[in-house]
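User: What would this chain look like folded?
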Amino acid sequence: MAENSTFKTKVNAFTQKHAEIWKFIKFTFTGASTSILEMAVFAVLQYGVFRSLNEVPVTDNPVLAFLGIEYKGYMYSYFISAVIGYAAAYIMNRKLTFKADANPVLSTILYAIMVICTIAFNTWFGAFLGTLIQNKGYDSVFIVMLTKLVVMTVPTLWTYPLNRFVIHRKKKTTDTDKENK
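Assistant: Here's the prediction, encoded as structure tokens.
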């Protein structure tokens, strides 16, 4: 029992001393957990639900064609899986990672704006890469899933700072708040 207590004490000391690193570790764990969910949803959609659309061209939209999105199946699979993954990440990060207490309506609106931009990027980037691998003949399950993983990882460059410092803030505590605790 003493060993367990010592380990717990060391973990608590680390998390207090390195609070910012600990938040990033939790953010990464949350991201990995929700990425598994997103990958699973993507695989079901890509190789089940939208399989018949993976070679159906997007010919009716000049904007999508200009962006390099050529196939409906890839576009739908990336979009839907990203929405589900980001919704799960929002809840986990707000409650577990950052323990945010800032206005939930404002946080949700800011998160939605970030996610819309990120999903637009992911949908374009993923569909663009999906089109590229489809046209080059490299569309094996392994390559497609590896591509999805790369596409999911890139937005961490902006999602962590936005989540940490803009969306999931903690209210600043005043001396009165500290005395009331």
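The chain is about 80% helix and 0% strand. If you want, I can go into more detail on any region.
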